[in-house]
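step=encode ok
step=design start
structure_in=
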């Protein structure tokens, strides 16, 4: 799931400077789960915008606005109101916002910050465990990603900053387990400690070029 966080309202307002008529586009999937872009969050934002004197021309909450064709189809019935708008305020992630800019010729303003690909551990609790590096290496750790869970992305660890199982980036408010201690414990539990001694070569980061793309061949 793509994790998003609403921008401070003053920042949203600043991005709408000089624009009165605003159409909103939300997302009923990831952004809804993050309470940033579902129907409730979008309606709440509409009320706040109205209180600031903005004229909200309409809104649409799309099921997966990261899907360009779905966005195009779902925005079609709103065309008249979109045409009357100065800009489109998007409460979906950056991918959703750019689907909107691909299909609508109006300035797009993001209402949220897109943070990371997150695991949902329970409602409202999101954790980053994969940074989509393009070549998954978690076979050698038996399932824990060092690229993401280690603050330095080390393929061989732990580093000298580990202290009592915690990473050196830990603070009192935000303790962080050292990923390499977690990896050691996992390998030990699964009787694979021999793997811990294998030195991993440098990772080929060119496997993930930006902007990346994947075009699947049609199956016959
Ligand atoms: S190695 Fe880590 S960042 Fe890369 S794909 Fe696997 S889980 Fe994701
Ligand atoms: S202490 Fe552990 S998690 Fe933190 S940077 Fe060093 S190896 Fe990575």
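sequence_out=
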């Amino acid at each position: 799931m793509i994790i998003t966080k609403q921008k401070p309202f003053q920042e949203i307002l600043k991005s709408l400077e000089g624009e009165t008529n605003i159409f909103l586009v939300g997302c009923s999937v990831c952004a809804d789960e993050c309470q940033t872009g579902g129907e409730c969050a979008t309606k709440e934002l509409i009320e706040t915008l109205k209180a600031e004197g903005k004229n909200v021309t309409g809104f649409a909450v799309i099921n997966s606005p990261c899907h360009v064709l779905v966005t195009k189809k779902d925005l079609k019935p709103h065309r008249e109101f979109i045409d009357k708008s100065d800009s489109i305020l998007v409460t979906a992630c950056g991918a959703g916002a750019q689907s909107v800019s691909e299909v609508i010729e109006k300035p797009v303003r993001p209402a949220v910050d897109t943070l990371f690909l997150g695991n949902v551990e329970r409602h409202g609790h999101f954790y980053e465990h994969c940074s989509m590096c393009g070549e998954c290496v978690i076979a050698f750790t038996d399932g824990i990603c060092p690229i993401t869970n280690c603050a330095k992305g080390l393929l061989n660890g732990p580093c000298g900053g580990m202290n009592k199982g915690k990473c050196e980036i830990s603070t009192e408010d935000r303790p962080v387990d050292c990923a390499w201690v977690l990896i050691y414990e996992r390998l030990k539990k699964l009787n694979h400690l021999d793997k811990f001694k294998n030195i991993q070569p440098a990772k080929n980061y060119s496997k993930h070029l930006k902007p990346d793309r994947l075009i699947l061949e049609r199956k016959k």
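step=design ok
step=annotate ok -> Residues 39-51 form the longest helix (13 residues).
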